[in-house]
Write a structure and sequence with these properties.
The protein is an all-alpha fold. It has two helices and no strands. The longest helix has 23 residues.
Length: about 70
């Protein structure tokens, strides 16, 4: 560090390491709350799909079987 560099920072507040975006997630109470919300959502989804039965597409009344009509 040269003398001009020291003069520019003399009296300035100390530079601390910048905290990353994951720092806010380091809160155990916040993580526990998010986990509870996710568990409630998972139970709701399981309840929703528990009675789900696959079905065929609704019949439209035409028996085209995917064949397009020819143009005249």
């Amino acid at each position: 560090m040269t003398a001009p560099d020291r003069m520019l920072t003399a009296g300035a507040p100390r530079a601390h390491a910048h905290r990353g975006p994951g720092y806010d997630y380091n809160d155990k109470q916040l993580r526990r709350h998010e986990r509870e919300v996710i568990e409630v959502a998972e139970r709701a989804y399981e309840t929703l799909i528990a009675g789900w039965q696959p079905r065929r597409p609704a019949h439209t009344g035409t028996a085209d079987f995917g064949v397009r009509p020819r143009r005249a």
